[in-house]
Every structure is written in C-alpha cells, then in structure tokens.
Amino acid sequence: MPTPQQLKDAFKRKYKKEVTLEPEQRVPVFMDVFDEFVKDCGMQNNWRDATYEKFATIKKYLQGFDSELTLDALDETRLNDYVNYLHDTKNLRNSTTGKQIDFLKWFLRWSKRKGYPTNPAFDTFKPKLKTTRKKVIFLTMEELNRLREYPIPARKKYLERVRDVFLFCCFTGLRYSDVFNLKRSDVKAGHIEVTTLKTADSLLIELNNHSKAILDKYKDIPFERDKTLPVIRNQRMNTYLKELGELCGIDEPVGETYYKGGERIDVVTPKYALLGSHVGRRTFICNALSLGIPAQVVMKWTGHSDYTAMKPYIDIADDIKAGAMDKFNRL
C-alpha cells in the first residue's frame, strides 16, 4: 500500500512537476530493480545469451507499457492492462502473452523476496487466456528420406552442409546448441558423449549408420575450435532449411489454430515454411517412438526427465502406428 507521500509524489511526477525526495522516501525505480534481477538470476542460473535476450525483450515491453511503472502499482487492474497491451499493441499470441506474464511473476517473486515494496496481487493473478496445444512439427520417414536423397543442384551447394547437420540432429536427437558445440573429443568408438548446454545433462548417444556416415564425411576437414561438424548460425540455418524443404517438395499443408485475446485465428502453412533446426530433434523422437523403441530408451538419448514432456511425441507415435496397421487392410 503506497504511503500518502508516495501518492503525492507520483501525482507530481505525472504532471511534470519537479519533486525532490528524501533518500528514505524514494520509490525503487522499476527498471533498476529489473536490471538487478537479471544480473542476480543470470549469474545464479548460468543464463545463456538467449535467456538474456529474452529478458531484454520483456524489459522493452514493460517500458513500452509504462515507462514510469512502479512495483507497488501492479495491482490486478494494472496487470490486466498489461495483458491487454501485449495482445492489442504488441500483437502477441495468447500463448506468448502467458509466457510473458509467467516471466514477470518470476521477477515480482524475486523482488518481493528481496524486500522491495511489491504489490501482492501477482501471487493470485491468472489471466484467462484461451490457448491450444502447439503442434509438433517433424518429418515423417518418407519426408526424411526424400530430404536425405534429394540431389542438391550445383548452384545450391551451400545447402549440402546445412542438410548434413540437420540430418545429424534427425538421427541423434541433439539440439542445435549441442551439435554446434560438438567437438571431435566428444566422438568415441560407436557413440558420442555430450553435456547439454541447456540442461547440463550428461548424455551418451549411440551412433547409427546414418549419423556415423555424416561424422566420417567431415572427419578429415578441420573446423574452428576443433568442432566436429560445419554448423552455421541458427538463424541462417533455419532460413536455409526452409529453402531446402521447399526444393524437396516437403509441402504438406499444416493447419494451426491460435488465439489473440478472444480472437480465434486459423492458418494453413506448407510444412517447409515451418522447418527449423529443432525439427531435427523432434523428428528423431517421433520416428524413434514410431519404430517401437521404448520411450524410456529415447529419453536416455534426449535427456528428457519425465513422461510429461514426452507425451505429445508418444501420442504422435501412436497415431503413426495406427495408420501403419491400417495398411494391412489394403492387402
């Protein structure tokens, strides 16, 4: 609850009148506290660059919403105003808005623990955001083989290395960040040993003929920092994968439904336009499960710690197997 003096000062600031506060009267500057939170949590949790960039975006949204925001001003009404700002002004999907609110609540919990005058409304704030489960994009066995066997034209040879790296993810389940950091010393006889960048899991992943062939192709080619494969920056790789997918005719229409505020939006996109490096990992999981490899074995390779994260993939594998059984009916 703001003191009468704080209310008076806020009123004066709003109407551009100068006010000089005594040190004990000063209200903590929201963005200064936010910067402290990022520095503190970043060091404690060993944030990667991508996480710092994520919170830089959050800060930018908050500044755009109210450049004079204070911690004690975020009551339920103001929090709802922020939700509306995210989907009306920033044009975010409900699923993204929900994540933004979760990150904001993380910051507010931290500020409360640190003793800053934080409005307690965030503790019970749960905006009603209609969402749908995000569709898992992966390549079927037929699409994977089509991409693997496609003869890349001479004028598009730059796509060859991109394809090899992507296929390595499809046949090992590695994330982009881990294949980017894969060193020759991580490659052992018949397997690779990786400590994942995202979760710090220590994984031992056996090599199959496909992943081994890709490693053999580049074993005598030196790369910087003793890397194993010619991995380019993720953004460029994702652009090239879309180009490669289009060339290969991976153009199955993919329907998606999402919400912005109360508006339902249905879109249909060719699959190649949805390709990115992480599709490789999803392709590995879905196809491994559909081949009948037990989920607990796949989890050992991917580093998943519980079945909750695996359930969407298991559901897809069950659908694939049901469709495969139907083929007997055509005999």
Automatic annotation (TrEMBL):
GO terms for molecular function: DNA binding. Keywords: DNA recombination, DNA-binding. InterPro entries: DNA_brk_join_enz, Integrase-like_cat_sf, Integrase_catalytic, Integrase_recombinase_N, SAM-like_dom, Tyrosine_recombinase_XerCD. The keyword Glycoprotein does not apply. It holds the Pfam family Phage_integrase. Residues 134-326 form the Tyr recombinase domain. Gene3D superfamilies: 1.10.150.130, Intergrase catalytic core. One of its GO terms (biological process) is DNA integration. Belongs to the 'phage' integrase family. This is Tyrosine recombinase XerC.
